[in-house]
Specification:
Elements lengths: L19 H21 L8 E7 L8 E7 L37 H21 L10 H28 L1 H11 L23 H22 L5 H38 L13 H16 L8 H9 L7 H4 L9 E8 L2 E8 L4 H26 L34 H11 L3 H10 L30 E2 L1
Antiparallel strand pairs: 1-2, 1-5, 3-4
Helix pairs in contact: 1-3, 2-3, 2-4, 3-4, 3-6, 5-6, 5-7, 5-10, 6-10
The protein binds fe (ii) ion (2 copies).
Length: 471
């Protein structure tokens, strides 16, 4: 395994110097990437020193170096986990055959599509979050935002390496287009819906890193089980970075809840909004919105594409090798609930066709752990309020439940009833206006906006009042 080469223009552990053609192609893409970063990355903080971590190895312990960096100088690079000797295709029809080190010709189109779809989410989230720096509730949070942003940029690098290294001219064209699409742009939007949703407040940001980055985790877990070995190795290292993004989300929302609980204890007879905190039912509405939007990202419940990807060994289930004993999934079935008339009926579908639903279920179970964590915060403050996940059928725009109406518990209802009650479940304009009104920048080290509690501890052993961003 090559160690990380930081001497060359593009840091990497793939011995880029030995492939001049590829090196030239990536070095040509590099300034275009930087142009995109200047245009679409975080606004206004390019000249500031930020306390960021940079990958310096792919070993599980001690892979990151922390230090002050200006964002445009961040060393975006290409890091793959080491190749495992004798690794086999972990699932599907080719189960047990030697894993592919080059793209199998027959799966070229599908594989390219999978990689481009993943790649597109990375710059999209940077674009969605680009204005948040102006209203950061603390320097600690500002730094976390930028850490997430630079790492999403690195994830783009990870995917672009695969495109340019393994897909020739097509891959180079895709790499260009990844810098041309824009989140929320009506003419050239990003590929997936959630990645075109505006992230205008920090509450949205924390929800996004909690629930949408977690979708990223599960997509990466599935791709980490790909028979195309370079993709699997790339995704394994991305997962290491991704964990921090979800930490930012889970603890971020947790700190908002904590602050509200404190205000509720101090002013038991008032609405917390009167004292600048976000009411718990309003936080629940944001949960409902971002969970349902992110739940769509798994695609249709019954999907021949998903079946093909699995059969081909391009995408496995999360933890395919560790968790399952049978890896072909030829005979199994999966129960899906369909609406017939006004009632739900169970239908068994062939397991391979239900792979999207299998992944979605794992994702929702993982979300539940975050919800439990938040409920421990309210319990600790003796506040009788339980957060919950909306049912998977609620507010869906992709798959079986599109165009149908369900309450947050998943009970079918008429369009009229739904429209009369949806304001109880999703943030309305007034809710969003209120949350937006709380967003004011706090720029002194160790100070926090009134709607969010400080974290339990600082980062990388630093104190909470450390100067995470030098303004
Ligand atoms: Fe990412
Ligand atoms: Fe992420």
């Amino acid at each position: 395994m090559a160690s990380i080469d930081y001497e060359s223009k593009i840091p990497n552990n793939v011995d880029l110097a030995s492939d001049k053609r590829l090196q030239r192609a990536l070095e040509k893409w590099q300034p275009e990437y930087l142009d995109w970063w200047h245009q679409m990355g975080p606004t206004d903080y390019e000249a500031n020193d930020i306390y960021l971590r940079t990958a310096i190895s792919v070993e599980a312990d001690g892979w990151a170096h922390f230090g002050y960096v200006k964002m445009p100088d961040y060393r975006w690079g290409i890091f793959l986990e080491p190749q495992q000797k004798g690794r086999v295709v972990p699932c599907g029809d080719h189960y047990g055959e030697e894993a592919w080190q080059e793209v199998p010709g027959e799966f070229r189109t599908e594989l390219r599509r999978i990689i481009v779809t993943q790649a597109d989410t990375e710059p999209a989230s940077v674009e969605q979050q680009r204005l948040l720096g102006h209203t950061a509730p603390s320097l600690y949070d500002l730094r976390n935002l930028f850490q997430v942003n630079v790492e999403e940029g690195r994830h783009l690098w990870a995917m672009v390496y695969l495109l340019q290294r393994y897909f020739g001219k097509d891959g180079r064209r895709e790499a260009e287009e990844l810098l041309e699409r824009r989140s929320g742009n009506p003419d050239r939007p990003r590929i997936l819906g959630t990645f075109n949703e505006p992230i205008t407040t920090w509450l949205d940001f924390f929800m996004f890193t909690m629930f949408t980055d977690r979708d990223g985790k599960f997509q990466l877990l599935a791709l980490a089980e790909s028979g195309f070995d370079p993709l699997a190795r790339t995704c394994r290292f991305m997962l290491t970075e991704e964990a921090h993004h979800m930490f930012v989300g889970q603890t971020g929302v947790g700190r908002v809840i904590k602050r509200t609980c404190e205000v509720m204890q101090e002013y038991p007879d008032a609405c917390p909004s009167e004292h600048g905190a976000i009411p718990l039912p309003l936080i629940q509405k944001y949960i409902n919105f971002w969970v349902s939007s992110s739940t769509d990202l798994y695609g249709s419940e019954i999907s021949s594409n998903a079946a093909n990807y699995f059969a081909a060994g391009l995408k496995g289930r999360a933890y395919e090798e560790k968790k399952y004993t049978e890896h072909k999934a030829m005979d199994g079935s999966y129960v899906i609930e369909k609406l017939e008339g006004d009632r739900l009926v169970k239908e068994e579908v062939p397991l391979r066709n239900a792979m999207n639903e299998v992944l979605r279920t794992e994702y929702l179970e993982d979300n539940q752990k975050g919800i439990d964590y938040w409920n421990r915060i309210t319990a600790k403050h003796n506040i009788d309020f339980n957060f919950c996940l909306p049912n998977r059928r609620f507010h869906r725009n992709i798959g079986l439940y599109t165009g149908l109406h369900f309450d947050v518990e998943g009970n079918p209802m008429s369009k009229e009833d739904y429209e009369a009650r949806v304001h109880e479940w999703l943030p309305n304009d007034e809710d969003r206006k209120f949350v937006t009104s709380l967003m004011v920048a706090v720029k002194e080290a160790g100070q926090f906006a009134g709607w969010i509690a400080p974290p339990a501890k600082g980062l990388n052993g630093q104190p909470v009042d450390f100067e995470y961003v030098k303004l």
